[in-house]
Amino acid sequence: MTTFNPMPELAPQLKQLRLSGILDSLESRNRQAIEGKLAYTEFLAMLIGDEVARRENKKFDMRLRRAQFRTTKTLEQFDFERVPTLNRALLQDLAAGRYIHENAPVLIVGPSGVGKSHLAQALGHCAVRQGVDVTFTTCTALTQSLNAARATGIYDRKIGALARVGLLIIDDFGLKPLRAPADEDLHDLIAERYERAPTIVTSNLDFEEWDQAFATNRLLASATIDRLRHNAYCLELDGRSYRDPKVAPAPKKAADRAPKTAAK
Fold it and tell me: Per the record, where are the segments of Basic and acidic residues compositional bias (predicted)?
């Protein structure tokens, strides 16, 4: 009796339907179905489940690449012992995506080296897992890219694209003074995203010092910061720096360096 092998015909048909990923698990699932005496519908459900999982993983990897995180920082990697005053309950709530659904800003402040960028990227990583498109950038790089877009005549298109990003993370706000047209560009972007999309901002400046980030235009500073702080979730970090220098071992004493005399 000749056994019919459908694989030569099945493979090109699956590729035509853009279901070629099923081929990766088809043989093992077929063997599992035979050994377990599964119904046809159970066998089909397993194959479809594999294809859905494969596509979700592919989308996740793509969103992760587009986010352009500096490094892959997650909440699991964060050293909470260094920041004992951190509101962990609020952080876990944010990780679950509350601020995303509310289109609310998240403001993270604290001295250098306490983990602001880490937490911002970790929240971004959580958002990627939840299917949100994320863009991570420093404030300097952001304003430079907007200025370059103006020079090439695509400023409105660039602002529009950034306004539509599911989650925008702006790192190191206030690290360098904002002068025209950078201050205006940042204001335009924040105004476009206001109550329409969530934005995470980190800064070394205390909240009451944020207006100092704008070199000259205090009116523009007030309008921008007012939109950022409205309904925002705030995380204040205070602790030991991650960037503590390594301590060199103490030099040996002269007596320790002297050769020992063998006992007689």
Answer: 253-264
